[in-house]
Amino acid sequence: MAHVAPRMAVSLDEYQERLAKTRAWMEQNDVELLVINQPEHYNWLSGYDPTSVFYHQTLLVERNPEREPVLLCNKAELALCDETCWLDDVRTVWTHEDQIDQVMKVVNELGDYADREIKVGVNLSSYHFRPVFAFKLRDEMPKAEFVDITPALDDLRLVKSKAEIDYLRRAAHIADLGVTAGINAIREGVTDREVLAEIQHAVFLNGGEFPAYPTLVDARGTLHGTPTGKILQKGDTVYCEVSGVVRRYHCNISRTIVIGEPDEKIRKLYGIVKETLDRATDALRPGKRVSEIVELVAECQAGFEQNTWGRFGFSMEIAYPPIWIGGLSLMRGDDHVLEPGMVITMEPGLSYADGKTMMIGNNVLVTEHGPEILNNVPSDLFVK
């Protein structure tokens, strides 16, 4: 029913515990079948770690604990599946085949799900579940009620095991090495691409994997800017955001660097962001509601509402392109309560302030004794 794959991220027992938690949610919510296409979710449950997540690949999980999940793996990724997936029942799907037809072949083999009025969980909120597949699946299972499994599985992943926290610590260290290399490379006369090259060299030399979102190096005052070949000049404010990735677990770090002596406006922005970062980080404690953190950040940044973007941080998880943002977001409308074992990036920056962006961000582990900052690079305003 299961085997130990050579590059499994966690133990077989931990994978089976995750599956048991998922089935408990299915039982509580009267969901009989999961058709999972979000790579973060099928990785978390099966261990399968693909590269080409644009392929439509599916993990089928029945509520019945006696039935093993079935993974439909694209043929191009089959070797990666053999290395990382603990499941025995893996079916190969060719790219040219009708993907939903292949899913339905397995569904029909498992039972009479297509002809019954049942609840079926699918990743309706996922970037990876194309509408064309969703519509066809609905047509193939006309009596089913489809429910979004995405928030539930995201919530199950929020509290990390010891093994996961170890990966996140390593990822934070790699991010530290990358951003330090970037800080050291920044000086008048170099290009932003040269800075990025130093960051990437440090990240991959020290065991980093490809991130779910680009590394950001920007001296143009944008929030999500990547290098354009700009030659750095005196007076530029350079924003760097680097992610360390270990076994798809992400930890990012953000730092701001000024070339030449910063003016009064930059120092003021830094003071506001640094105070907000410190106070909001200290508030990341068990039992705190996200809404309380959001209110605290808003209080610290009063008068600068037009220079924020409404999300001040988020949980860090297993992640694949296009983004590393987890299921918890430090923004209005999120009703999560913090628990020990959650890892959250805290980044209450300010942007578009007269063409300047000021961002300082760290990853923080919520513990029973308070917040533990995983990054070790000082949260100073670096002056080069």
Strand count, sense and barrel status of the largest sheet are:
6 strands, mixed
Task: Spell out the CATH superfamily of the largest domain.
Answer: Creatinase/methionine aminopeptidase superfamily
> What would you call the shape?
elongated
Radius of gyration (CA) equals 22 Å
Order of helices and strands: HEHEEHEHEHEHHHEEEHHEEEEEEEE
| CATH T-level topology of the largest domain | Creatine Amidinohydrolase
The averaged pLDDT comes out at 96
- Helix/strand-derived category reads alpha+beta
What's the number of domains? 2
Q: In what order do the strands lie side by side in the largest sheet?
A: 4-3-2-1-5-6
Terminal residue distance: 58 Å
- Label the CATH architecture of the largest domain: Alpha-Beta Complex
What do these coordinates show?
There is one protein chain. The protein has helices at residues 12-28, 39-46, 78-84, 99-110, 131-140, 150-156, 162-185, 192-205, 264-282, 290-300; strands spanning 33-36, 58-62, 70-74, 90-93, 119-122, 145-148, 216-218, 237-246, 249-258, 313-316, 325-329, 343-346, 350-353, 356-358, 362-367, 370-373, 382-383. By secondary structure, it is of the alpha+beta class. Strand 5 (119-122), helix 5 and strand 6 (145-148) form a beta-alpha-beta unit. The mean pLDDT is 96. Helix content is 34%, strand content 21%. The protein has a 6-stranded mixed β-sheet, sandwiched between helices. It has a 5-stranded antiparallel β-sheet with strand order 11-10-12-15-16. A 4-stranded mixed β-sheet has the order 7-8-9-17. The chain contains 10 helices and 17 strands.
